[in-house]
Amino acid sequence: MTGSPDHKQEDGGDRNTVIRLQSYLHGGTSSLLSALPTLFVFPVYKTIFRQQIHNTSVHHTVGQLYKEGPVKLYRGVVPPLLMRTLNGTLLFGLQDTLLRHLSLSTHNATSAAALPALAGFGAGMVEAVVFTPFERVQNVLQNGQNDRHLPSLRSVLMRLKVQRISQGYYRAFLPIAVRNTLGSSLYFGLKGPVCVLVAGRGLSPMGSSFVSGTLTSMAISLTLYPLSVLVANMQAQVGGEAKGVMTCWSALWKSRNHSVALLYRGGTLVILRSCITWGITTAIYDRQQQQSS
């Protein structure tokens, strides 16, 4: 027997809800799977971080980490693993939700092409609000200078808790917000067109997604790398004099002898990390989306 229009409308609403929830699930799953290699590449990530805050060469940084030993090498690995999984769930799911809402309110072909980037911008802002505390804790833990007076995750959390919010958990929120909104906007705006372009070269759909995610994230990482260096330097310490973003940037630029090359120390390693994580994430996410559509 044919259902009433109200029942049909309810069924359609349920299906739409399931479709919207799938993007959150797929984002979390793809990020979780791509986060597993983080255990292997975390030493690379930590090397980048040390270069960012100490302005040292790769050789010197690796030697420093080697002397600290394998136990301290993986100090701070929990926040990025947790953050990576939750980040993918929120970023992909929220971007898809915003995109669906924006698509209903526009009928212009030109503006419709920019909607993925616009939705990515909104998702990036929410991402910054949610995950700045994670990044703050991670950067404090990875700074070897904090090992003695902040020896554990609990000690870091307790110390940040008593700080003013702008100097505690949300230290460097402004540059993080700029980096995340621009990065997410560029990622979601470019990955589709790049994937189509790569697919035209004869690659499989999953291969095209992997290459698209890799190239897009590589370009974004290198473009926004100075902001990541600024964030790392602002968040690595706890306490001390409260300095604004421009003051911190001036101090950072001066410490790098006004050299772009020194500012980009560790930038080549960002390419490796992007290839592993965002390439895998994009390929798995697109694959899941295609299977469920």
TrEMBL record:
* Annotated protein name in UniProt: Solute carrier family 25 member 53
Q: Where are the Solcar repeats?
A: 22-101, 111-197, 204-291
Q: Which keywords label this protein?
A: Membrane, Mitochondrion, Mitochondrion inner membrane, Repeat, Transmembrane, Transmembrane helix, Transport
| Transmembrane regions listed in the UniProt entry | 24-45, 168-190, 210-232
- Entry-linked PANTHER family: SD08549P, SOLUTE CARRIER FAMILY 25 MEMBER 53
| Compartments it resides in | Mitochondrion inner membrane
A GO cellular component annotated for this chain's UniProt record is: mitochondrial inner membrane
Which positions carry the signal peptide feature in this UniProt record? none
| PROSITE patterns the UniProt entry points to | SOLCAR
How does the record say this protein sits in the membrane? Multi-pass membrane protein
Is Repeat included in the keywords of this UniProt record?
yes
Q: What is its main location?
A: mitochondrion
According to the lineage, what is the superkingdom? Answer: Eukaryota
Please give the family membership noted in the entry.
Belongs to the mitochondrial carrier (TC 2.A.29) family.
| SUPFAM superfamilies the record matches | Mitochondrial carrier
Kindly indicate whether the keyword Oxidoreductase belongs to this entry: no
> What GO molecular function annotation could you give as one example from this UniProt entry?
NAD transmembrane transporter activity
